[in-house]
Fold:
Amino acid sequence: MKRTKPITPFGWAIKRRLAELELDQKEFCRRYDIPVYRLSNLISGTRKAEQYRKLVMEVLDIEEP
Structure:
């Protein structure tokens, strides 16, 4: 499946940290009650999703690049 939007540096930080924790995106979203499409928005940068951005940064212990 080809992505329509490139992954942002913040998106790569999310993906990298999820890999370190051995979690896939769906499982992470299920555990922390985050809509899958919002995490996808954060990864591709299509929406700021401030509420979820803060939660993801806190849970994954990452900073915005």
